[in-house]
Structure formats: C-alpha cells, structure tokens
C-alpha cells in the first residue's frame, strides 16, 4: 500500500480517536489535537507531503490548545452548585419555637425544622432569639444550624 494512503487512514483514526476520548473526558485538552489531525488529513487528501502534514498538525494543535485553554479553565473552575444540606448555608432561617428541652431554639428553613445554635462566641445568647426572628445560616454542625443574628 502507498505510504500516503497509510497516513490518510492514520490521520482519520487519530482525529476520530481523539474526538472520542475528548467526549469521554470533557477537558478540552484533546480537542485541539483532533483539529490538528483533521487538518493533517485534509493536507494528505490534497497530496501535500508528509512534512507539511506534520507541520500543520503541530501548528494547528498548539494554536488551538492556546486558544481553548482559557475557556477550559473557566468552565472547570466555575462555581459549584451546592447540594444536600450545604445548600442551606447562606440562606435565612425563621425562629419558630421556644427553647427545646436542651435549651436550643428551633428554626424553619426550606420547609425543614432544625435546632439552632448561634455562631461561636455568642452561644450564651441563644435563649435571646425571639420567635419570628430571621437569622442567617453560617454553617451546619451535625443536626444544628450555626446562625448569626441580623444586627
């Protein structure tokens, strides 16, 4: 078989393989190399020498990689969506009950009732929370919301 025909199929297989791997990883790292292989395949198709095919592969891959890296970085380092109980952090809760037997208040947030403790250093004032008062959720410790009063 003609060596140019072998490279014709190698470029196609390389481009297709890199595209499939990119779809599996979704990192936008392999995509530029798939572009480079596709350009090299096209140059093989129009019968340019192997030197120009490799040069085009390298140049297109490097330029594409440099162009796509900022986009990939933005997509992978964006804000993550909170789930589970972490979604409650940063929300407001409403004090709903008098102190429970252990001296904790109860608050309602997102349709759920939770025990409430004030942020560290302010625990002695938990009993001062008034029914109907809104508090800001700072975190969660076990089954308790750690809250801060609005000033």
Could you characterize what this model shows?
With 151 residues, the chain is an alpha+beta fold. Helices cover 43% and strands 20% of the residues. It has a five-stranded mixed β-barrel. Helix 1 (3-25) runs antiparallel to helix 2 (31-45) and helix 2 (31-45) packs antiparallel against helix 3 (50-76). The longest helix has 27 residues, at 50-76. It is rod-shaped. The model has no long low-confidence stretch (mean pLDDT 86).
Alpha plus pi helix count: 3
Which secondary-structure class do the elements indicate? alpha+beta
If you average the pLDDT, what whole number results? 86
Question: In whole angstroms, how far apart are the ends?
Answer: 82 Å
Report the count of strand segments: 5
Low-confidence stretches: none
How do the strands line up in the largest sheet?
A: 1-2-3-5-4
The amount of helix comes to 40-55%
Q: What string, H for helix and E for strand, traces the elements in order? A: HHHEEEEE
Oligomer: single chain
**Biggest β-sheet, characterized?**
5 strands, mixed, barrel
Strand content: 15-25%
> Radius of gyration in whole Å, from Cα?
30 Å
Any idea what the shape is?
rod-shaped
Note the main attributes of this structure.
five-stranded mixed barrel; 151 residues
Chart the SSEs and their pairings:
Elements: H1 3-25, H2 31-45, H3 50-76, E1 92-95, E2 105-109, E3 112-118, E4 134-141, E5 144-149
Parallel strand pairs: 3-5
Antiparallel strand pairs: 1-2, 1-4, 2-3, 4-5
């Amino acid at each position: 078989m003609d060596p140019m025909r072998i490279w014709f199929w190698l470029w196609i297989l390389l481009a297709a393989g890199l595209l499939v791997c990119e779809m599996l990883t979704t990192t936008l790292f392999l995509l530029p190399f798939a572009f480079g292989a596709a350009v090299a395949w096209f140059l093989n198709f129009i019968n340019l020498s192997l030197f120009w095919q490799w040069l085009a592969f390298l140049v297109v891959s490097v330029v594409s990689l440099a162009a796509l890296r900022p986009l990939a970085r933005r997509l992978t380092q964006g804000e993550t969506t909170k789930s589970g109980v972490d979604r409650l952090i940063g929300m407001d809760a409403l004090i709903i009950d008098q102190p429970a037997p252990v001296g904790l208040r109860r608050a309602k947030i997102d349709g759920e009732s939770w025990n409430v403790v004030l942020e560290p250093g302010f625990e002695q004032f938990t009993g001062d929370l008034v029914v109907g008062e809104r508090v800001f959720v700072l975190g969660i410790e076990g089954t308790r919301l750690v809250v801060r009063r609005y000033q």
